[in-house]
């Protein structure tokens, strides 16, 4: 009797395990977008556990769950916001965990999974290519028909992954070398500079913005070489791996660049220059920022702030000292973010470009959206509108909830919420003072900003099904 009961119990466990395994297989293979969410959540839980260990904190005490979880989310989602002092709270082990985490998050969960598969099996199957494609273009992160006219063709995914791995390694090494001596000249020892330089290199290329030095960039606020290297590294990380891939193949042939590359670079440069001009005008006389500086320093710092509000997250000034008009301008730049399939966040510059071109075409009375001799299809325009609406909804809801919890000034709440959603990392100082309930809301905002718009775009693209009939047309009044 006991034997038969144990046999039946073992069979039940085996069936349950088989069903659970089948569930996870179906969940991860039915859509790369679902797989991305599963991987991101798993990584956040793992890094939360690691950062909760006593060995991870400098004083060997256990970090509170809210702080460990938020730091893990901010690390894996390459955001840079923090509820603790990053320079003094974490031990060497904690900093090592964060360094590894930002590089994982910067590469992208799907890209990392595909890279590991490529290393192990020496080849990529169709499923692995479709999974990797989810990181290169949100429109391809579903399991349906793949349009080979998009930024990176399916057959090029293997080459792209190699470019991603190589470019990340090369750029971070070069940036670390360039930053090493300025760090030594700032008063740090040769040994300290040996880990501070790679740390800054990773934080800048991944657009995270964590600073391992006490006082942040205070020691380097007049070191224009150091700050320029940071800006270049942030720019390279924010344009996206598909753009880096295209430039690596056709750098001297701009006429052959894909439309995605052209739109990304042009929109990025326009926002960079326009943002600097706006900050220069609005903050020129502000004694709390750079109102007391000379013309050269003011101009340089305006460009630096413009670059960092696009997702870099480093700051020489206290963002809380900005005029409210400048906070609004910075929030707009943060909301846009960087390039698609990059380490930056936001709704992405190509989304803004598509929306602007759509509005321009509508104003000119054109039936289609055309640029650089190419026509942008209506499904891309619909996804751009959906991403904008999705992002605005997340920001609005999070702002309302946190403002209600904290009763803090709306300008500060909105600034930090958009910084969280766009994975920028700039803060007015509000994030470090949030109660636990608001910290969890902001953590969800960070997570949704990193994976939510991609998931929504995939869902919109996946719902495009053929229909054998057409309903009657009726035009509601718009505007």
Automatic annotation (TrEMBL):
Q: Where is the major localization of this protein? A: membrane
Mark the transmembrane ranges.
35-56, 68-90, 96-120, 163-185, 224-247, 259-282, 332-360, 380-401, 438-462
Q: Where in the cell is it found?
A: Cell membrane
Alphabetically, the GO molecular function entries are:
monoatomic cation transmembrane transporter activity
Q: How does it sit in the membrane?
A: Multi-pass membrane protein
Single GO biological process annotation from the record: metal ion transport
Q: Where on the tree of life does the source sit, at the highest rank? A: Bacteria
Q: Which UniProt keywords apply?
A: Cell membrane, Ion transport, Membrane, Transmembrane, Transmembrane helix, Transport
Pfam name, any one: TrkH
A single GO CC term, please?
A: plasma membrane
Tell me which InterPro entries the record gives: Cat_transpt (IPR003445)
Q: PANTHER family from the entry? A: KTR SYSTEM POTASSIUM UPTAKE PROTEIN B, TRK SYSTEM POTASSIUM UPTAKE PROTEIN TRKG-RELATED
What name does the UniProt record give this protein? Potassium transporter Trk
Can you name the source organism? Answer: Microbacterium barkeri
